[in-house]
Write a structure and sequence with these properties.
- A hairpin with a 2-residue loop joins strand 21 (316-323) and strand 22.
- The protein is 5% helix and 47% strand.
- It is built from 3 helices and 34 strands.
- The longest helix is centred in the first third of the chain and has 16 residues, at 2-17.
- The model is unreliable at 1-9 (pLDDT under 50).
Length: 491
């Protein structure tokens, strides 16, 4: 009887940990998003997929599609290992003009093979991304010991550069980003290496991306290129982070392309512990959409889910805005998800007057939006808690002038010594009003401070759902606005 009771508790916890509106695999292991592309009304997401008990031994590209970013359909594994090794991260494009000779409008998937060293290979699809064939002359960029290329040489991202009518492939090469170019998508030449000479603590780069955005949302203000990459060093809340640089692409007299970064240090995309390997969708008009792996290599193998491990962040729309301290990348959840949070579950006047309320288990599938007027409070924020005494705090600290997520008491189960802690932004200055929008989904909190100027994504694994909310301050403060909405899954 005791074993059955424990088994029932474990099964209940597993069901409780299944996210309601974040993507996770049906089973087994998942990490980096790969090959994001929009095709005929569907957003395709490939991802690193393997068995939980032998990650990296049979790594493949899993495959899922969605129309609305809420309802996902997981399809068959798209690209499997072969004699060149397992399949690491990469990207996809549509070959509209048959530059490759593999077929007009074919879908080309660029990925990293691992044998005998990390090198770049190609697969292609003639049925709109449903199935893929391996290119018969792989690898398309070979990495031999004489090539002056490190063994850490992976995650190709391919984009079109209209100015030179060339394709650019970005490849993470240890602590550099290689720029390779091609006119036929088959034969590639190395043109440029990006290296952060301003950073003495670089580590290994992964999952590069490159895209252009209008400043302050208007092309008349000019445009900036954004170089995005993940790094295993440099984060302020632990080593791993997704960083970005802004700048311009320059073309010399020989049409060689280079990235001229702005005169400012790199910035962090997300100050939480659990957003890594973020990349953008290709073939999306008028929007730049991004998603990341919502986990951290420090404890990814220890998270308390059994049949599956790994989930994705909310998909986000990106923009860049100019501030006194330079240009910043702004992140907001995609409009498709925003539109679904339209069912109120607590009356606003209750939270504004009482500042504390029992919400129930719906809190674990909700969007909480508040505007706090700090007055004399040195610390103010939101506390989510349950009857077990587990809680997570999200707020602003005036002495350190930072936003934070405190998950030291977020669960009573031991995951890893690096899991519990307070995660902070850098100094954001004195804020007399604090705006926060929090998306809660059973095992995660994603916080967008000041309308996406600062973002923090963190996993949580409470033993029972957070059911109560408390808007707190250590001194005089006022709740100017407070809404709690849940998701309409019927649209």
């Amino acid at each position: 009887m005791k074993m059955n009771k424990n088994k029932n508790i474990e099964n209940k916890n597993q069901r409780m940990y299944n996210p309601a509106y974040h993507f996770k695999p049906n089973k087994e292991w998942m990490n980096d998003p790969n090959g994001l592309i929009y095709i005929n009304g569907y957003y395709h997401m490939f991802f690193q997929h393997d068995k939980i008990d032998h990650v990296f031994k049979d790594m493949s590209w899993g495959h899922a599609v969605t129309k609305d970013f809420i309802h996902w359909e997981e399809l068959d594994v798209a690209i499997k290992p072969d004699e060149l090794g397992v399949i690491y991260s990469g990207s996809t494009i549509i070959d509209r003009h048959n530059h490759s000779g593999l077929g007009k409008d074919s879908i080309l998937a660029f990925y990293t093979s691992t044998l005998p060293r990390q090198q770049q290979s190609l697969a292609y699809s003639l049925d709109h991304g449903k199935t893929f064939l391996k290119y018969r002359e792989n690898p398309i960029i070979e990495n031999n010991p004489l090539s002056n290329i490190p063994d850490d040489f992976r995650d190709p991202k391919v984009i079109w550069h209209d100015g030179t009518k060339k394709w650019i492939m970005l490849i993470a090469a240890f602590n550099r980003i290689h720029f390779w170019t091609s006119r036929n998508l088959i034969h590639w030449n190395r043109e440029y290496e990006f290296y952060d000479e301003m950073d003495k603590k670089i580590g290994v780069f992964e999952c590069p991306d490159l895209f252009q955005l209008p400043i302050n949302g208007d092309h008349q203000n000019g445009n900036k290129w954004v170089l995005l990459l993940s790094s295993n060093m440099g984060g302020i809340n632990g080593e791993t982070c997704t960083r970005y640089y802004t700048g311009d692409l320059q073309v010399d007299a020989y049409e060689k392309i280079s990235f001229a970064r702005d005169d400012q240090p790199f910035k962090i995309l997300d100050f939480g512990r659990d957003n890594y390997a973020s990349i953008t969708w290709s073939n999306v008009l008028d929007r730049t959409l991004l998603i990341g792996w919502m986990n951290n290599w420090e404890y990814a193998f220890q998270t308390p889910t059994k049949e599956w491990k790994g989930m994705m962040t909310l998909p986000r729309e990106l923009s860049i805005w100019s501030y006194s301290e330079g240009i910043k990348l702004i992140s907001k959840p995609v409009a498709e998800i925003e539109a679904r949070f339209n069912i109120p579950i607590v009356e606003e006047q209750i939270l504004c007057s009482q500042k504390e309320a029992y919400v129930g288990e719906q809190l674990m599938c909700s969007k909480v939006e508040v505007l706090l007027e700090r007055h004399n409070a040195l610390e103010t924020g939101i506390e989510l808690y349950n009857e077990q005494g587990e809680y997570v705090r999200i707020g602003y600290h005036a002495i350190d002038a930072c936003f934070y997520v405190d998950r030291r008491m977020s669960e009573n189960v031991f995951i890893h010594k690096g899991f519990k802690g307070i995660h902070t932004t850098p100094n954001v200055g004195i804020r007399n009003k604090v705006q926060m929008t929090i998306y809660i989904d059973r095992t995660s909190v994603e916080v967008f401070f000041e309308n996406g100027e600062y973002v923090m994504s963190d996993l949580v694994f409470p033993l029972s759902p957070y059911t109560n909310i408390n808007l707190y301050g250590d001194d005089e403060m006022n709740v100017a606005k407070a809404n709690i909405m849940t998701l309409d899954m019927t649209l």
